[in-house]
């Protein structure tokens, strides 16, 4: 056992009288720990090593430089550095300030820190922010100084991570122009350095008066082929599509269990788009599971989970042809948990079918507050769909009652009018998806034929108006899916919102502005050489990393890039909210197929729903059924357009905790 001291009664003065090894002192005062030697400065050793260091570096510098008189810290370099430190940026308006900042960043990326801030700013303002003229002037000025005997600091062309230092030859000085700079670049042939992802520098468009597209994003110009640059898309569209049937995308929406998938499956079967053999297979398999009534729904609900749960979970696609149209059917999920999928499908739609269940109690549960009948109708109208066909399904369960039909029509008419649909753009059709009554033929059932002599469902689809396609606008496409193709490269799918796309075209990808080339494209698994606005296509891209493309990002025209920002203003209509919207309110932003976290960072004004007049500036909160101008800020930079420029890309939806709380239109991009 160890011996313990009695510390309570110990006299510490007596205890340490004979001790020399007091804490903090060595046993021998003349002895220094070997490890301390490295921290002690020896004057003689220091002078010797310093002179050796200077001599060694001088020899290295003499070997590296042909001219012994050159010194990196010469008078010119010091002057440039002093000018940059003492110079203050001039006070300009927002547009000029954005252009100036962009020019300064462009020049810095080429010449580094060799030129003073003052000279860059003065040159930029003198040449009205023309980056080509600015670079030519600065580079030629450096060359002229060299010809006169003034040796300025070397100009570093920081165009790539592996950039090399380039200096003009000494015997025959050459004129350095922007073409010399372009030859030093690697990768894609572009006319100016690639814009960074930061939206506050040069990654976003410079705002111009009136939204003129020619002035958009003037600081980033990407080279494309001559054919792509001079293409007349309207003329090409007329040549290729004039003899073909017009195409529309129709989304089928409604409350869960309203019979949407069964209705569309039976319609596909009656129009000959599903073989008798496949239908017999579905019938036998559904019988085994005791779900024979789902046999038509299985035409569109193909996954095992959808069939086991008896509900649609993702947007199913199929195609039918009428006398004058090719219709792409989009079967949207009705369950509230899959509304984000429904929104993604609705952004691709031109027209919509709203399916309601005529069974007593079922219609009421879907139509009352919290049901998806109301929410789906509001969502598709907010996303730009203005033609709606209302299908009153399962009318056979109420004995083809005319009174029940008129009751449902009366309730829906007033609601749809409030939602923004015109009465002339809405039709009401009674039918039964399970029996096939009034789908492709006029009413045959005596109970229905007795009081209804209107069009059948296929006739309603036939009379939908084809919306005007923005073919002659710059190319824009939202990515809805990404997958590995069978050949080289990878494939993306989505709907062309505006413009046209051809094989071998160059495009830009998302907020990174990475350039890619179209290797091939197809529509409904058929290879095409070109596609136009309104087409749902699959594209094989080359020259871009698959990891840099995500669902929801925008593919767009290099000649007219899309604005990139993290903050924008929009005009929103607030629906039913439990908690009033205030500054700092977190939301999920839905833009096309993109779902991005965002924050309400500013409440600009409350406005009147009809007139748009400002009711109150800077309100403290927004309640339900209100209309307001707000600013949203996203966690990362996104591609977005103003509604006045591109209606297709200027709409947003705001959702919180699985509920859609607002819909809006982008009015200003910061």
From TrEMBL:
Residues 62-76 have a biased composition (Acidic residues). It catalyses: GTP + H2O = GDP + phosphate + H(+). Residues 245-468 form the Tr-type G domain. Its main location: cytoplasm. The keyword ATP-binding does not apply. Residues 199-208 have a biased composition (Polar residues). GO terms for cellular component: cytoplasm. It is found in: Cytoplasm. GO terms for biological process: post-transcriptional gene silencing; regulation of translation; sperm individualization; spermatocyte division; translation. Keywords: Cytoplasm, GTP-binding, Hydrolase, Nucleotide-binding, Phosphoprotein, Protein biosynthesis, Translation regulation. PROSITE patterns: G_TR_2. CDD domains: EF1_alpha, HBS1-like_II, HBS1_C_III. Coiled coil: none annotated. One of its GO terms (molecular function) is GTP binding. Belongs to the TRAFAC class translation factor GTPase superfamily. Classic translation factor GTPase family. EF-Tu/EF-1A subfamily. This is Tr-type G domain-containing protein. The gene is Dmoj\GI16690.
């Amino acid at each position: 056992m160890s011996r313990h001291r009695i510390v309570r009664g110990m006299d510490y003065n007596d205890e340490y009288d004979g001790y020399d090894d007091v804490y903090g002192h060595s046993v021998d005062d003349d002895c220094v720990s070997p490890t301390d030697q490295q921290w002690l400065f020896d004057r003689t050793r220091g002078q010797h090593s310093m002179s050796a260091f200077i001599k060694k570096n001088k020899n290295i510098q003499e070997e590296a430089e042909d001219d012994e008189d050159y010194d990196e810290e010469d008078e010119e370099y010091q002057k440039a550095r002093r000018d940059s430190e003492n110079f203050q940026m001039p006070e300009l308006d927002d547009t000029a300030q954005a252009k100036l900042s962009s020019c300064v960043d462009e020049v810095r990326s080429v010449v580094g820190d060799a030129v003073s801030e003052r000279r860059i700013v003065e040159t930029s303002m003198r040449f009205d922010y023309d980056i080509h003229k600015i670079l030519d002037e600065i580079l030629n000025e450096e060359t002229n100084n060299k010809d006169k005997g003034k040796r300025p600091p070397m100009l570093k062309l920081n165009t790539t991570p592996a950039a090399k230092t380039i200096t003009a030859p000494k015997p025959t000085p050459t004129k350095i122009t922007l073409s010399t700079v372009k030859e030093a670049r690697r990768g894609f042939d572009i006319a100016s350095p690639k814009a960074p992802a930061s939206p506050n520098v040069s990654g976003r468009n410079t705002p111009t008066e009136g939204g003129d597209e020619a002035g958009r994003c003037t600081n980033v110009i990407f080279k494309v082929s001559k054919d792509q640059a001079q293409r007349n898309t309207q003329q090409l569209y007329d040549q290729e599509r004039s003899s073909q049937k017009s195409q529309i995308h129709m989304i089928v929406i409604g409350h869960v269990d309203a019979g949407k998938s069964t209705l569309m499956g039976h319609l596909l079967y009656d129009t000959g788009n599903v073989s008798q053999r496949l239908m017999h297979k579905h019938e036998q398999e559904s019988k085994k599971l005791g779900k024979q009534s789902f046999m038509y729904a299985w035409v569109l609900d193909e996954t095992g989970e959808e069939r086991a749960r008896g509900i649609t979970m993702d947007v199913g696609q199929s195609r039918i042809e009428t006398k004058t149209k090719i219709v792409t059917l989009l079967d949207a999920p009705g369950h509230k948990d899959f509304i984000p999928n429904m929104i993604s499908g609705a952004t691709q739609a031109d027209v919509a079918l709203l399916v309601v269940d005529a069974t007593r109690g079922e219609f009421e549960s879907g139509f009352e507050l919290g049901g998806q009948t109301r929410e789906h109708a509001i969502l598709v109208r907010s996303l730009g769909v203005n033609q709606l066909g209302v299908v009153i399904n399962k009318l056979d369960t109420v004995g083809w009652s005319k009174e029940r039909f008129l009751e449902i029509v009366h309730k829906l008419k007033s609601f749809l009018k409030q939602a923004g649909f015109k009465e002339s753009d809405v039709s009401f059709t009674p039918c039964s998806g399970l029996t096939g009554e009034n789908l492709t033929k006029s009413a045959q059932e005596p109970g229905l034929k007795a009081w209804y002599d209107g069009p059948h469902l296929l006739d309603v689809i036939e009379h939908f108006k084809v919306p005007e396609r923005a073919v002659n606008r710059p190319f824009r496409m939202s990515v809805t899916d990404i997958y590995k193709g069978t050949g080289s490269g990878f494939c993306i799918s989505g709907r062309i919102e505006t413009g046209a796309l051809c094989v071998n075209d160059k495009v830009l990808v998302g907020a990174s502005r990475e350039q890619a080339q179209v290797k091939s494209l197809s529509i409904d698994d058929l290879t095409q050489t070109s596609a136009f606005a309104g087409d749902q296509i699959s594209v094989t891209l080359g020259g871009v990393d698959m990891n840099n493309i995500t669902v929801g990002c925008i593919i767009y025209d290099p000649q007219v890039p899309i604005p990139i920002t993290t903050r924008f203003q929009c005009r929103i209509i607030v629906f039913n909210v439990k908690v009033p919207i205030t500054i700092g309110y977190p939301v999920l932003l839905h833009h096309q197929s993109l779902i991005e976290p965002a924050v309400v960072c500013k409440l600009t004004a409350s406005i009147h729903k009809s007139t748009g007049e400002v009711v109150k500036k800077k309100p403290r909160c927004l309640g339900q059924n209100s209309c307001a101008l707000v600013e949203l800020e996203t966690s990362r930079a996104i591609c977005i357009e103003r509604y006045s420029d591109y209606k297709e890309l200027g709409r947003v939806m705001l959702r919180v905790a699985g509920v859609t709380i607002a819909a809006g239109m982008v009015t200003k991009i910061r």
